[in-house]
Amino acid sequence: MAVRSEKKSSNFIVQGGILATAGIVTRLIGMIYRIPVTNIIGDKGNGYYASAYYVYNIMLLISSYSLPLAVSKVVSARLSKNQYHNAVRVFRGGLMFAAMTGGAACLAVFFGADFFARFLNEPLSAIALRIFAPTLLVVAVMGVFRGYFQGMGTMVPTAFSQIIEQIVNAVISIIAAKALFDYGRKVSALLRNEDLAPAYGAAGSTLGTSIGAFMALLFLVVLFLFLSSRIRRRFDNDNSRYVESYGAVFRIILLTVFPVVLSTAIYNINDILDNYIFNHYMTVNGLGAEKTAIWGIYTGKAKLLLNVPIALSNAMSASTVPALASCIAADNMRGARRKVSVAMRFTMIISFPCAVGLLVLAEPIVSILFKGDPAMAAALIRSAAVTVIFYSLSTLTNGMLQGIGRMVVPVINAVISLILHITVLVFLMSKFKMGIYAVVISTIVFSLSMSILNGYGLKLCLKYRQEYIATFAIPLASSLVMGVVIFVLDKLLNTVLGNLVTTLLSILLGTVVYFICILRFGGVREEEIYEVPLGGKIVRVAKRLNLL
Q1: How many CB atoms sit inside 10 A of residue 254's CB?
Q2: 134 lies in some domain
Q3: Structural domain that includes position 524
């Protein structure tokens, strides 16, 4: 019984489910706390925050974003061969690597904040950017701890640290945003610059990110020290023929990190390029005064909601990488293909209904969560809802390709997609003056291109054949049925019960309808349900309702 339990806990879908649950919880916390922050600092403050965050995010990608993935992959490969000493050497080498890259990024952002802010044509975002700087070092070191635990086959430490990080982030961000916004008002009155209040408010909201990351790191360090004696006991079964030098560890990490950094940086650099191109053409077209607020609506409201379901693909990707690395190390291609198939289907089963739900309920959700006119944010969500599916798919396939050792493939695909993205964006902004909707359309092009190219790459590398009916057609059909139900329900009950109650009932009933459709249409098999968290209870309920 204990052996069975251990096997079940190491299952990558269960671990992915744990991390996905934590990811969704943290995204929900992030969405919830951004609501009062947005209402405090306003759309313009969100615009300043977004500009600072893009620079921070790019520096994070370059310095340490791929460290958890790289460390988990290398550690997992060592542990699959019972090389426990070498796994620890990878961990220690990763810490040294993180200190160097994270420290360099921290200094570059702190002293180069004004340069980066001027580049984006948002000079006041430099205030927030300087507060972001120390977080780069903290997150780099934290990434190594998370990667080490993930490589050992457990996502629980990462999941708990993410929740701790986000809770602290939420509390501090709200308090600091209010305090610094009020301070900015006083400075604005003295200097006669009304933009200083939202700029200082944006800086306050970044303070929570720094303190939250530090508290999460502290949790991981304490947990590691607590478990260190258990880890050392494994050394008795070590099969290492030699202990790798730190120079060798550095080379392995660099060879693993570099292509991941390239693909991830290219994959995410479109945000900062979008911001730059959008600001440039809006200013050229005489809309410079409006650009910051419009960008704030797009990033602080529309993208905030759209990014919540994408947390699942990030989590599934993180759990798939070490699982695939172990399969490849054991030359188990059949097992690798099965893991790809199951992860793809479970990700699409979640992504499709989320996209349709946001499409149908965009305006009532925005009006419940945010102050002001919901029209623009709702229209942007409806226009970009399909990116939930494409980004979930492309993020997952990126991780899969990296997990099977095809590091260069996502880089090439990202370059091709980025060129298409920028070409479409510049064309729509310059020729048709489509404003923020040009950004939405070009983002759809980018995510769709990545999904197609990565899918083709997996097909070639693994000789993998996608189950299109089970993976795409059934979730789509189930989501459309759900969409019709919640649309009708929203129209019938809104005037009677009010927006909040109607929206909550629509989401609840829509979830039930979708669950029934997925089971009745055969979108998931009984044995696969057992592999997700609470799978046994789900099966029992489904059988009582004659759905299985």
Answers
A1: 12
A2: yes
A3: 475-548
